[in-house]
Structure prediction request, 569 residues.
Amino acid sequence: MADEGQGREQARELTELLRASVAAARAGDHATSWRLTSEFGTRFWLADPADLPEDLPTAERTEFHVLRAAAADRMELHDDTVADVRAWRALAEDADDTPSAVLALSSLCLVAMVVECDDAVLTCGLAPTPALLTELAARLTDVGAGLTEDSPRHVRVCLSLAAMAGLTCATSTENAPKRGQFRALCARFTSPTVQPGDRVLTEAQQLHADGRTAEAVTLVTDHLATLDPAVTPTQVYEAHDVLGYLSLTAGETPEEMDTDGVLAHWRACAELALELGAPLEGMHRAEQVCQLLNADGDYDAAYDLARRYGKALDGAPVSPALLNLRAVRARSALGADLPYEAFALAASTADWSALTPDSERTLACLSIATMAAEEAGEAGTLGSSTGETVVSLLERAATLHLDRGERIPAAQVLRTAARERCSSGETSRAVELMERALRVLEDPATDAARSPDTDDDMLTWHLADWNEDMSAVWEMADRPDLAVAYAERAARYFRDARDHSGAALNWVSAAELYLDQGDGTACDRALDLAHVELLSVPGGEPDEPGATFDTGENAAWEGYHALRNLRQG
Prediction:
């Protein structure tokens, strides 16, 4: 009975939310609309429209799908977005609410744009943007034929928003013919009395697309100066959002972007959304701000913002956007010296992410979890099985690399796991992992395609590097006889890969191992071979005027001279 009563109460609260959302939309109260969208996504995501009251008006029943589509869009759940936009459109058409149906069609255009621009996965099937834009332009032209300032506000708002969405889509997809067509439709349907401020932001978007970015920045900056956050918070948000985008695209290359501008404007967006109680609206900007803060080493600020968003989003379903935010929070927790929390966040996020096509995020989370586990283990907060936990994470990463056809990264990860086991005295486990890494390196079938990082020279170099690691494993295991054999093999592979300093370093290592075993003759022979490799490196010897060397070459020369002097002394 308690569950049944609770269900009725939830249905009543959802019905009230839908009515409030319809009222907010009719009044142009965007702040309330944003807040209710987040409330729907965090409290009513699992609600079934079939459970809505039978006598619920069509407007409220349609609003269920409008809100669910908006929430799904913010969470990057593209299939859900399409499904609910289609349901919204169907209900609007059944109710002869043609303007709302046209607005729904424009939403499909935006979904198609995002999916195509981000190369996202969509399983439900959606027409390409050119086809959707053609249909939208035709519908706008037909429905707007008799539009006047005396037309109902609902009609004017729907057509204005639909025209702006079409222009955004045509601009972003660089569809010049459609861009011109939608510019004309926007000029016709978007009036300051219907969409205050939207005309300014649309004009700025077009100035930027025309290469007149400085004018766009001035236009939006001047517009922002006229706004009061307490009166029009959503317009302030949108102005900062556009200015952040303009800062992001300020230079010819990503390195030339105005990072400070991006951070300042999108940080303002993230904070405004939280103040409004609309975390779904700001979660993507919050994630991007946290990435920038992490890149600057400001982990405490990134962690604080991500933590506050995590709390505000409690109840939201697992989604790509939420996983991205959790991943960036895990990274900031690691930098903020919270290794156990970083491990818990990264490991659980990796588990969820593994169920999605985003292998990059999964690999990033496995990497964060690995580093956090090592730090948590050193701090004594992860228990006695830290070593195997780290190895397990690394093995998962290796498997994922192999699934992606990346044998060299897979082998490198397995070698990292081997070094961890070796440092813990688990020699047999380390050797097992090293042998797995070698099988991966030597199996060309694991390549998705021949590429610069898997050509013959690079593969030879990585085989050399593997032998160098194996030498270190046997040296740590107190098996100098095996260590020296792998060091010599590494030197020969490095020579074949034309890495003479790497070859010299390994001959010096072999010489030192021979000397420790009392084999002076073998030591001298290895030193002679090291000298040959060192002379093959352009630049001469370190004591020659003008000679320049990297760290590896200097180490090889220093090791060579130290051992040679010892032998001759």
